[in-house]
Amino acid sequence: MEFRDNKAIYLQIAEYVCEHILLGKWKADEKVPSVRELAVEMEVNPNTVMRTYELLQNKNIINNKRGIGFFVEEGAIDNVKNYRKQQFIIDELPVVFRNIYLLDISFDELENQYKTFVKENFNA
Amino acid sequence: MININNLNFGYSKHKPLFKNMSMRLSNGHIYGLLGKNGAGKSSLLKNLAGLVYAQSGTLDVMGFNPAKRQPALLEQICFIPEEFYLPSVKIDAYLKANAPFYKNFDHQYFATLLKEFDIPASNKLIEMSYGQKKKFIIAFGLATQAKLVIMDEPTNGLDIPSKAQFRKIMASAMTDERCIIISTHQVRDLDNLIDTVIMLDENDVALKASVEEITAKLTFKKVKEVDDSIFYAEPSLSGYNAVMPNYHHEESKLDMELLFNAILAEKIKFKPLFS
Predict the structure, then answer these.
(1) Is A4 within a domain?
(2) Fewer CB within 10 Å: C terminus or N terminus of chain B?
(3) Are residues A90 and A43 in the same domain?
(4) What's the ipTM?
């Protein structure tokens, strides 16, 4: 995975896991990769993935079945959305707003762009 | 795992390399050992492996003094030096001669590692390239199942795919029982593998802190202008890459190269944060 420079690695891995859950690749009650498996895939220290999994447990996105592994929580999708929404509003929206303001982009134009984007990327 | 107490060491009496150095290292970590050329990274590693001797002070590695070179300790140490010699034999002959020194040597794991590194098992050691030799000794070292893994510039000479392979192998080799110490100048190759940074400078440990602790206390980010709150900054394309105290609990990504330069340049500013 390509990591960005501006955010802690454990949070970027949390985003990766959340993305998989939102896109339905990892479903409720299914097992997620073990700490070691994900560390190998991401080429990072297993302690970093452990930190990610602790965070996601606190957010009720995954749970730890002792001795078996980590599983996607029942209501994970809602919890991911809540968590990601907060993150998005705090971290990313100000940057987007700033550009919208500076470039004088109208909400109508924005809406059209948004609809096209959703159509092209998610077929919705 | 490792306890260093008031270590004094140097290659000549008049030029000490370490003065009263003390440090504790525990298992379950990958330590990144950083320092300028000549700061003593390789010498510290050699002290731990019993390849050189302290002038005074004590070194305790898993309950042993490494200077005594007892087999019970040496079979638990895997040392990958920067410069190494390999005899003119094939891989299986090398294994036959050397693997028996390590009672936990895992032949199957060794074969897997060779395969992952793309090295044909029938190769003669001296006919291989430097990078292939390096991958061979890394595979041998890890297959010993040693609890203390010491690597001096392991990514030197590895090609781009091998570096990624190396990171994957190290991520899977890190267990709660193992202590892994990697010295490197190529921090960009390894920065996501390292969980604790040890920096040597001016005959002592200039910094020893986990990535979590460092990023809790410091923030690394791009800024447009440099002001007094910034400890250290380097010009970049769109402003400056800066290090400053983490006033607002930001979760930034540790920039190990920037931290390294910052500590060399502004050691006094960082000292109160990490004592």
Answers:
(1) no
(2) C
(3) no
(4) 0.86
